[in-house]
Design goal:
Elements (H helix, E strand, L loop, with lengths): L4 E4 L3 H12 L5 E6 L2 E5 L3 E6 L14 E5 L3 H13 L3 E8 L8 E6 L5 E6 L4
Parallel strand pairs: 1-4, 5-8
Antiparallel strand pairs: 2-3, 3-4, 6-7, 7-8
């Protein structure tokens, strides 16, 4: 349904360092760059970060939430460790969330720009 998604960030270098670290355990890498913009993905860039262009004001996040697919529960755990080590605030340690479904295993963080980021695996343990 969604081809790609872009987030405004205050500092592209800080954001790249953060997302390089937290997306690696999920199998996503930096695939394309332009001045002030970076695109991540596995087959093509689907997640983009970028600084506001000249004259644009950064829009602070409000109730935005983004969940990345993890191939297994170990990847969710690694995502959470990498995110916290890279400066994210813990917003929910890795674990089952059976309120969603019995195999919903996820971890939640808040990135340095204030975005709520999740890694989730829907596979049985």
């Amino acid at each position: 349904m969604i081809d790609h998604l872009s987030l405004a960030v205050a500092d592209i270098d800080r954001a790249k360092t953060f997302y390089d670290a937290v997306l690696a355990p999920l199998g996503y890498t930096l695939m394309m760059e332009f001045p002030g913009v970076a695109g991540y993905g596995d087959r093509h860039p689907t997640f983009w970060i970028g600084q506001p262009r000249d004259g644009e004001k950064p829009v602070p996040p409000t109730n935005f939430h983004l969940a990345f697919v993890a191939r297994d529960r170990a990847a969710v755990d690694a995502f959470h460790r990498a995110a916290v080590a890279a400066g994210a605030c813990d917003n929910g340690a890795p674990g089952l969330r059976p309120v969603y479904h019995p195999d919903y295993y996820a971890a939640f963080v808040i990135d340095p720009d204030g975005y709520k980021i999740e890694a989730v695996c829907h596979q049985p343990g």
